[in-house]
Amino acid sequence: MKIAQNISQLYRLSKVFIVGGNIYLAQDKFEEAVHYYQEAERVSEKSGHKQRQHTALLQLTNLYAKMGLKSEWNTYANKLFNIQQELNLQSEDEIYVIN
């Protein structure tokens, strides 16, 4: 991870943080996972990689829900909603709606 930080490839670095978070999550080490997902979100936002930021935010909201941390969940759920709007993400049902 330190090598990736020295290389200015923030897209790859954000993926490293997400994978790290996934590893800790699989081990039920929630606080460590939160740290990695927060770093992934921060790096992705800084570099403008919205899809990767969306992934990190989705993982954070799921994790905070598991941990029962409503305030943190609310903060990241709002950020997630905003990113979904920016990316114009739609459910399959919305695709078939005629405006």
For the structure shown, list the relevant keywords.
globular; 6 helices; single chain; Serine Threonine Protein Phosphatase 5, Tetratricopeptide repeat; about 100 residues; mainly alpha
Please give the number of β-strands: 0
* CATH fold group: Serine Threonine Protein Phosphatase 5, Tetratricopeptide repeat
Q: Indicate the low-confidence ranges by residue numbers.
A: none
CATH superfamily: Tetratricopeptide repeat domain
General description of the model:
- With 99 residues, the protein is mainly alpha-helical.
- The chain has one domain (2-95): Tetratricopeptide repeat domain (Serine Threonine Protein Phosphatase 5, Tetratricopeptide repeat, Alpha Horseshoe), CATH 1.25.40.10.
- Helix content is 81%, strand content 0%.
- It has 6 helices and no strands.
- Helix 2 runs antiparallel to helix 3, helix 2 (10-26) runs parallel beside helix 4 (50-67) and helix 4 (50-67) packs antiparallel against helix 5.
- The longest helix is centred in the middle third of the chain and has 18 residues, at 30-47.
- The protein starts with a helix and ends with a helix.
Quick description:
With 99 residues, the chain is an all-alpha fold. It is built from six helices and no strands.
Q: Secondary-structure map with pairings?
A:
Blueprint: H1 2-6, H2 10-26, H3 30-47, H4 50-67, H5 70-87, H6 92-95
Helix pairs in contact: 2-3, 2-4, 3-4, 4-5
